[in-house]
Specification:
- Helices cover 7% and strands 55% of the residues.
- It has 285 residues and is mainly beta.
- It folds into two domains: 28-46 and 193-280, Lipocalin, CATH 2.40.128; 51-186.
Length: 285
């Protein structure tokens, strides 16, 4: 009797055993960490622009005269890149020329976008309040300022990409308006585009777990899911229920990690900015 072997079945069987063996050799560490930003791939820079600003503006009016203005305000940036101001009634200082001072309530709106490690900001501020001009009785003031700017890591400034617009109206004294050219203002302390990403992976064939993205201003929480198919394919979605983090809702990303966990590719949108890069992991301590 002659026994015939089908080599195709033998190849398929050996491939299955090989894959099972390879998967068995993959050890999933409890944490996978990335240190990102300007010390790594420049495309991995992430700008968290939340903080306190003090604008020094030179408003060029229609008559050519320059109106010096200083305005303080607090900017909030959510995980989707949307800009806002605190909901409480904290007043900030506004001065116009050298002879006026106002306590105003700034209301910030706008959006952060960007890609390739550069953040672009559309900033709009409306303000109203009371104060004095040249020691005269208290009067009311209202006005607005808008500008389009982008981050400049070399100077540490937000730099205007086109002229800003400023207007003001002081009760009983009339108003003024004009353009702001050469706009530049320091970013808040800590806004240096560096951040860290820590993944806590559970499982192999079906991966679950959490991730935390930490900037100088916040730690955002994410839920992750995925699978191992020769590489680790992971999706992360911002949530608001991770302990010791703020809401990451509005940010999300996808990653591919190699089985050695020494590098990964990243694609997603965080704090309004599109990120796409490859970076090495931080070696386990």
């Amino acid at each position: 009797m002659t026994i015939r072997f089908n080599p195709r079945w033998l190849f398929a069987l050996s491939l299955v055993f090989s894959l099972q063996f390879c998967r068995a050799q993959v050890e999933v560490p409890p944490f996978v960490n990335f240190s990102l930003g300007d010390t790594n791939n420049p495309d991995s820079q992430l700008w968290d622009l939340q903080g306190t600003y003090s604008l020094n503006l030179n408003v060029v009016q229609r008559n050519g005269l320059v109106l010096p203005v200083n305005l303080n305000f607090i900017l909030l940036q959510d995980a989707s890149g949307r800009l806002s101001s605190p909901t409480n009634d904290n007043t900030e200082a506004l001065t116009v020329s050298d002879n006026s001072f106002f306590a105003v309530l700034p209301r910030v709106t706008g959006k952060v976008t960007g890609s390739g490690g550069t953040a672009r900001v559309q900033l709009n501020i409306r303000f109203s309040g009371t104060g004095q001009v040249s020691g005269q009785p208290t009067t009311t003031v209202k006005g607005s300022f808008s500008v389009t700017a982008e981050t400049d890591p070399d100077s540490g400034n937000l730099v205007g990409t086109k002229n800003g617009k400023f207007s003001i109206n002081i009760s009983g004294m009339g108003g003024a308006s004009g353009v702001v050219d050469d706009f530049a203002t320091p970013m808040p302390n800590g806004a240096n585009a560096t951040w860290t990403l820590s993944l806590q992976l559970v499982g192999l064939k079906k991966i679950t777990g959490d991730a935390v993205a930490t900037t100088p201003n916040r730690a955002m929480g994410f839920n992750l899911s995925g699978k191992f198919d020769g590489v680790f394919n992971i999706s992360c979605k911002g949530v608001n229920n991770i302990q010791n983090t703020v809401s990451g809702v509005g940010s999300s990303f996808k990653m591919q990690l190699d089985p050695a966990f020494d590098s990964g590719s990243f694609q997603g949108k965080m704090l309004g900015q599109h990120l796409e890069f490859t970076a090495p992991t931080v070696p386990p301590q």
